[in-house]
């Protein structure tokens, strides 16, 4: 494994651990600290559908996620971690309540790594939110 | 790059080329020939939603895809290819007509490679089918 690949995997895994912590607890500080200032993300639907630009926008998004999935979204299995020199893709399943209704999904998130930060991510849904 | 990683990437890319050919033309033979007999796949929604088991089921699915997206679904950009020793993830955008209505999506497909075949895949949607 090249040093670049090793670093990308390490940074990606650290970011994912903080991402999971944010989903579960609503505390996003450590995850947000890992984002570059020019961070961008793509989300599949709702008010953050499409391309979102900037760290401020990310802050708003994760605050919204925490409100939507109160009291926290649980990752029930991490199915695959796939890496190259710049990108780490996590395939996982999650479960919780979405605005009070039972919610389950299969999700892929693809993190782009630059140095020891995440500069962008893309999220994809593998289910309809009712089963995973 | 290890020999195993190199083989996985090569087999994954070949399968993806045949997958793209199937989407565009409705001719799935070469892609289906690359699937193991115990092939399984996950699809996000509709009548093939969830886990699907067996090559026969895959045949039915891709026939359905061709009917749904007549006259063919076009991959407009391949955004990321991410690999480890067993899995290749393709992030791409597509565009076409779904039962006569304009359709666009961002998609991630994750192929699991065994030898020179694909033994399973998981599909994820990054958009709502109306924009990518």
UniProtKB/TrEMBL annotation, chains A, B:
InterPro entries reported for this sequence: NTF2-like_dom_sf, SnoaL-like
Domain SnoaL-like residues, every copy: 17-120
Pfam families xrefs: SnoaL_2 (PF12680)
Name this protein carries in UniProt: Nuclear transport factor 2 family protein
Originating organism: Fischerella muscicola CCMEE 5323
């Amino acid at each position: 494994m090249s040093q670049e690949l090793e670093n990308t995997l390490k940074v990606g895994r650290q970011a994912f651990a903080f991402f999971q912590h944010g989903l579960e607890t609503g505390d996003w500080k450590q995850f947000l600290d890992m984002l570059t200032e020019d961070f961008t993300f793509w989300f599949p639907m709702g008010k953050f559908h499409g391309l979102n630009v900037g760290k401020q926008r990310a802050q708003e998004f994760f605050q919204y996620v925490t409100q939507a999935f109160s009291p926290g979204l649980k990752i029930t299995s991490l199915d695959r971690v796939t890496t190259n020199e710049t990108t780490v893709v996590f395939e996982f399943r999650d479960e919780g309540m979405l605005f009070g209704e039972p919610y389950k999904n299969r999700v892929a998130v693809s993190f782009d790594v630059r140095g020891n930060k995440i500069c962008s991510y893309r999220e994809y849904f593998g289910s309809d939110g009712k089963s995973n």
